[in-house]
Amino acid sequence: MAEATPYEGFSKADRMLRTWQELDVPDGWRAEIVDGKITIMAPPSKPHNFIAHLLHRALTKAAPDDLGVFQTLGVGIPVLGEVYIPDLVVIPEDAVEGDPSNPHPAEDALLVVEIVSKSSADADRKKKLWGYAHAPVPLYLLIDRWAEEGPAAFLYEDPKNGAYLKRTTVRFGDPLYLPEPFDLEIDTKRFPRPE
């Protein structure tokens, strides 16, 4: 008789999630489930971290007291079997309680921020855009130093049926406005441009 595997009887999505939960990823590295595959990402660059720092500080000051601004918090999109690790996520503080090995439902997030790296460009611009819209996450902020039209921030709003109905593009150097519950203008002049 064949010996049962530890994941026998689980769906592919469940097996992927369990494998993701059991990974021992070095500090600073991140593991995500994107497009049905586990992807390991190296620590971000200094410019990437600096943008995350500026956004984190601005969001922390503007967010209502019951919201938390978290870096590298796993968010799950069960309908797609995906787990993303956004650079920043704004979520009610009480939603992050519980088992730390389980990703938090992306649908609880009010805002997710992805800062594009050369290696993550396709996933951030297409796959995660689609995934966050399916969650649905009300606001998806994509900071893209490598955008074809030049460094820019893209704010996606109003998700319906797996797509965002509104996109605002702001070039680095221009102010970026985030609507309620933030009502925040972010100065992008300090966002580093690619060298």
UniProtKB/TrEMBL annotation:
Record has Nuclease as a keyword: yes
Any Pfam family hit: Uma2
Gene Ontology molecular functions: endonuclease activity
Gene3D superfamilies associated with the record: tt1808, chain A (3.90.1570.10)
The keyword Hydrolase belongs to this UniProt entry's keyword annotation: yes
Keyword annotations from UniProtKB, A to Z: Endonuclease, Hydrolase, Nuclease
InterPro entries according to UniProt: Nuclease_put_TT1808, Restrct_endonuc-II-like, Uma2
Domain Putative restriction endonuclease: 22-186
Domain of life the protein comes from: Bacteria
Cited PANTHER family: SLL1072 PROTEIN (PTHR35400:SF3), SLR1083 PROTEIN (PTHR35400)
Protein name per Swiss-Prot or TrEMBL: Uma2 family endonuclease
Lineage summary: Bacteria, Bacillati, Actinomycetota, Actinomycetes, Streptosporangiales
